[in-house]
Amino acid sequence: MSTARTLSMPYKAPVITPLHEAGIGDDGGAADAGFCARLQHAIDTKTKPVGSLGALETLAYQIGRIQQSLRPAIRRPAIIVFAGDHGIAAQGVSPFPQAVTVQMVMNFLAGGAAINAFSRSARVELEVVDAGVATEIEHPGNLVVRAVARGTRDFSVEPAMTDEQLVQALASGAERVDYQAAMGSNTIGFGEMGIANTSAAACLMSRLLDLPIDACVGRGTGLDDAGVAHKRAVLAAALERHPASPDPLVTLATFGGFEIAMMTGAYLAAAHARMTILVDGFIATAALLAASKINARVLDYCVFAHSSGEHGHQLMLEKLGAKPLLSLGLRLGEGTGAALAVPLVRAAASFLSEMASFESAGVSDRSDAPSDEH
Questions:
Q1: More exposed terminus of the chain, fewer Cβ within 10 Å: N or C?
Q2: What is the pTM of this model?
């Protein structure tokens, strides 16, 4: 094993405003604390028993905090799907050939994938980005081409990407978020497509959380028991080859994919823009894990859409202190869980903005009810 390396070129992460009470306002947080009290009062005094909307009340509070508004609105929700190929696929860690990545990108562009159907149903803007698919698409149509290279290198042999490629991917992810924000979006989610990207995500999880690889490796796109055992062995050997680094950027460059790195940059940019961020499944959460190691404040802006059926995701959510909205056994990726959560996010903002209070509706609350005491 060689000694741990450091990133050879600078990366300046965007500034993220913290949401905790001591972090907003020129008066040391007093203004934010006062707003929080008003926001909680607005939620508690809607025409319902306190807490009766359960997790939607927590979600409404978070959205109100993000937007610093008692009447938040979900505007032009968008999902960006980043697609990229992985050199580790050459080691047989997926039951599907690498050609499926470009085939699925074409399916996205034709409107035939699950994320297309769910985005249409939820009225979500959908963007597809070529982050580094192995096969160049000659007539990309509405594909956004930001390919860093035609797939990453095989990280069982060498780091997946160079430091320069990592910084380029981070910047490209941020640029796509900036575009969506400029188009009017204040709510955004990220999806991915890339054969063998659960292998990359598992290694990131193992290294960034200091967990054994066995706790992180799952079936991916449908490996049998023998396939999972082979995948686990390949990834364990890859982790042994590359020394641990305290720098999450080095870890991301070593094991990540271009689509994962772009999502990492996208998360940081979305939090910088004070957007509500919808977090999808295992791979998207691995990218968020990397982003949180760069700047933990990104988590304040994240709504965890669902708990994936992929092995390791629940543990990753627990380590992040996340409480997902849905648990449907999904393990497709593509941003599908994020799209399914959009109606719930809309509902949470709507009840805070539109639901009457006891006072405005002329309805008696418990404090106004006649007392039995004499």
A1: C
A2: 0.92
